[in-house]
Amino acid sequence: MGARQARKAATRERVLAAARDLFEEMGYEATTIRMVAQRAAVSVGSVFTSFSGKAELLSQVMQDRLEALYAELEQLAPHLRGPTVDRLRSIMAVHYGFETRRVRLFVVYIGASFLWEEGQSVIPLGRNHRLKTMLAEVLRNGVERGEVRADADLGVFIDTLLAAYMWNYRLAPQDGANAQAMITVMDRQIGLLFDGVAARA
Fold first, then answer.
1. Which CATH architecture has domain 1-51?
2. I need a labelling partner for 163 at 20 to 30 A (CA). Which of 7, 22, 38, 123 fits?
């Protein structure tokens, strides 16, 4: 990497770090590109060199965080043991443990994603292909082990599971729920949902 590219990459990282902190501190609506530029000690133009606006900036902040999350999950996945329902619980528990390190940021992301318009340079909420692939693999293995019905609609199950996962984040601002409280709720929800796809004796 040349000196110019290195400077550009360093600026981009400063902008992302500033945006991440501001979105968490101020929320999506209150944060402006000018504030991000000031926090990152760059010009407003430098922000727009890499990002089209706030939506893309928040989307990229969250995608970068997901890379760190999946580094954790990829280490965990080969060691998952027990019934399919417990493997699902383990994956979602790791998610809550990770996202509650910056829970306000994640809640801001959930809310902001409903404001984004079609065609913006963002990855919409729920388009997490890596998570869906991981959950589908656990469920397919469950089919092979005879724990999940072969005719179960795994796509609908995964969408419903992720809807419950997102919905539970309301407990953080409303009730001050921490990771363990949300994991406890999610464990019960997974148990109920899994009854719908479980193989019958």
1. Orthogonal Bundle (1.10)
2. 22
Note whether 116 and 126 are within 8 A (CB): no
The alpha helices in the chain, defined as continuous H runs, are 3-26, 33-40, 44-50, 54-76, 84-99, 103-113, 129-144, 154-167, 171-175, 179-195
pTM: 0.87
Residue ranges per structural domain of the chain? 1-51, 59-195
Query: pLDDT digit string (tens) for 121-143?
Result: 777 777 778 889 899 999 999 99
Angle at 31 between CA 27 and CA 37, to 5 degrees: 140
